[in-house]
TrEMBL record:
It is a multi-pass membrane protein. PANTHER family: INNER MEMBRANE PROTEIN YEIH-RELATED, UPF0324 INNER MEMBRANE PROTEIN YEIH. The keyword Transmembrane applies. Keywords: Cell membrane, Membrane, Transmembrane, Transmembrane helix. This is Sulfate exporter family transporter. Belongs to the UPF0324 family. Pfam families: Cons_hypoth698. It comes from Methylobacterium crusticola.
Length: 346
């Protein structure tokens, strides 16, 4: 009875804040559904809408202690569960299907973009954590990568909000502007598919950028994008090992970190689910619910992060973040073009 009572108190304390985050998530999902009905593609995803709604609510009303526990729980623990569930969407089949030359090119593109983006952000005077978030968002899969990396490196809600807000805006501009490069550069449908897969942030946005062009562009772009998303696993694992260095003297004072400090539980869960999926141990009927569950929890967490954001902090770094994201994206575009022409893609 004692354990049940404690569990009840634990849940009751978190319920108001959690319910608020769920309400924001429902509103954001409704906006995305309306967007899809009108323009047929989610140019601005529910994840972005949720964090912007959360920021708007926080700017007009500061949640009191009754709400904060549940909001903090949604922003941290639920996000960690979402990252773990993402492992079920990772399969080595896409890696094998891409071929060794294109696979190596995609890995090199992600690695070079990570290094260049992080370097640009640091040169602009941005802190290490937000620099890493911007780099991962540009190099891998935009908002989803930012959301997955944030708990690993201990990024604050302000860091995540800044990264996602400006990356989301630029991501939409890329989707709208990328087709203009077809006549300008004279790229073929296959070349354009590779270019879209390497530069556009989210899988739905790849479809929005390629479906109007050709079926071949859509197929190639989706494959390249999926392989690029697979890079999230190694990057998250690597960052979990490097995360103690971000804490500097604090980590040093605490002595040698244990294994579960170096590799958090949700990263281990991510790797276990990814391995199980690759080995065929995760049944196909379970993949849809797991993927949708991860996506839903991520949106709830983004709503929670938005509710904890001080908009004045975001505004102070806005210009530098915008410049860093823009410069990083241009670097990614140049690297991607070099890959397309360097591999001799027809």
């Amino acid at each position: 009875m004692g354990r049940a009572a404690a569990l009840g108190r634990y849940a009751a304390a978190r319920l108001p804040g959690f319910a608020l985050c769920v309400a924001v998530t429902a509103a954001a999902s409704l906006v995305q559904a309306l967007e899809e009905r009108v323009v047929h593609h989610p140019y601005v995803e529910a994840l972005v809408i949720a964090i912007l709604m959360g920021i708007a609510i926080r700017s007009a009303w500061e949640p009191g202690p009754r709400w904060r526990v549940g909001i903090a729980f949604s922003a941290k623990q639920l996000l960690e569960v979402a990252v773990m569930l993402l492992g079920a969407s990772i399969s080595l089949a896409a890696l094998v299907a891409s071929g060794p030359a294109l696979l190596g090119g995609i890995v090199a593109t992600v690695a070079l973009t990570l290094a260049a983006s992080c370097g640009i952000a640091r040169l602009l005077g941005l802190p290490a954590r937000i620099s890493i978030l911007i780099a991962c968002g540009n190099a891998i899969c935009g908002n989803s990568a930012i959301a997955a990396v944030a708990p690993v490196i201990g990024a604050s809600g302000d860091d995540v909000a800044s990264s996602i807000a400006f990356t989301a805006i630029l991501g939409v501009l890329v989707v709208l502007g990328l087709p203009l490069l077809i006549p300008l550069l004279g790229v073929s449908p296959v070349q354009y598919g590779v270019l879209a897969g390497l530069t556009v942030y989210a899988v739905p946005q790849v479809l929005a950028a390629t479906v109007p062009v050709s079926l071949v562009s859509t197929q190639v772009g989706t494959l390249v994008k999926l392989v690029r998303v697979l890079m999230l696993g190694p990057v998250v694992l690597g960052l979990s090992l490097l995360a103690p260095r971000l804490r500097g003297a604090e980590a040093g004072a605490a002595g040698r970190p244990g294994f579960f400090k170096l590799v958090p539980w949700f990263i281990l869960g991510f790797l276990v689910l990814a391995a199980a999926r690759s080995l065929g141990l995760v049944p196909d009927p379970a993949l849809g619910p797991l993927t949708r569950g991860a996506g839903l929890l991520t949106v709830v967490s983004m709503a929670a992060l938005g509710l904890g954001v001080d908009v004045r902090v975001v505004a102070r770094v806005g210009a530098r973040v915008t410049l860093a994201v823009t410069a990083s994206l241009l670097v990614l575009l140049l690297i991607s073009l070099a890959l397309v022409y360097g591999l001799g893609i027809p």
